[in-house]
Amino acid sequence: MMDLGTVIGQVLAWILMAWAIWLGGNILGYVDYPSVLIVFGGGICMLLVAFPFADLSRIGGAVSKALRFKDNSPLKSVEQLVRLSEMARREGILALERSVGDIEDDFLKTGIRLAVDGIEPELIKEILQTEIAFMEDRHKKGLSVLEYISGVFPAMGMIGTLIGLVAMLQNLSDPSSIGPAMAVAILTTLYGALVANLVAVPLAKKMAARSAAEIHAREVIIEGIMAIQSGDNPRIVEQRLLAFLPPSMRPRKED
After folding, report:
1. For 144-162, how does the pLDDT look when each residue is reduced to its tens digit (9 = 90+)?
2. If DSSP codes are grouped into helix, strand and coil, which group holds residue 31?
3. C-alpha distances in angstroms, 180 versus 23, 31, 41?
4. Boundaries of every domain in the chain
5. Other beta carbons within 10 Å of 108
6. What DSSP string describes 185-248?
7. Whole-angstrom Cα distance, residue 55 to residue 141?
8. Which among 159, 141, 148, 164 is positioned nearest to 196, based on CA atoms?
9. pTM of this prediction exceeds 0.85
10. Region at 174 (left for phi over 0; alpha for psi -120 to 50; beta for the rest)
11. CA distance 1 to 12
12. Ramachandran category for residue 119: left, alpha or beta (phi over 0 → left; psi -120 to 50 → alpha)
């Protein structure tokens, strides 16, 4: 599912920046190749130094998680778990094997299969929590790359500013050199700030929120599987799982 908020926000932000520059009357004046080399070339080189290639390859997944996401609605999981609880209560837990093929969520499917196979509840919980832990670790590695970008690109911008100021101060006797040197000094800072605040920071925030939501949904699933395996009443299962959800997400009870 495409996250329209992220896409619209990103597109509008860059359009507004370009529009503001265009209103200033000299859009080509904001293009400076030495500044691009310092900020983008230097930033990419620092990424190669700071992270192994395996972690850098996760940046695509990080951006994808911010732009596209699965509908991991906890309420949907609760409703499905309650139905499975009713079936297990009525026909026995082995009857759930017939429903495994209809389950779309791989995490829930794994948990139900383990429960049907008669695995001890504590071992099931340990297996599923381990899967959550490794998923969270993968997310953190992608997130750490975005967070590093949000810091290193502005830093390279500041380095470019210092380079431009040094070049300007060394050639004060030549007025024609002051303009290009000042452009490098200012535009490097601008490029670094744009990459950090229009790309890296917002995407990192969105990815962190998506990751937290996915972890929460999986914790609800674990609780539901434990309740099903212990043979709890479906109404009790529903109440236990709804306790994980904010009141605004819970279904309204008819008067």
Report:
1. 899 999 999 999 999 989 9
2. coil
3. 22, 11, 19
4. 31-250
5. 23
6. HHHHHHHHHHIIIIIIHHHHHHHHHHHHHHHHHHHHHHHHHHHHHTT--HHHHHHHHHTTS-GG
7. 6
8. 148
9. no
10. beta
11. 20
12. beta
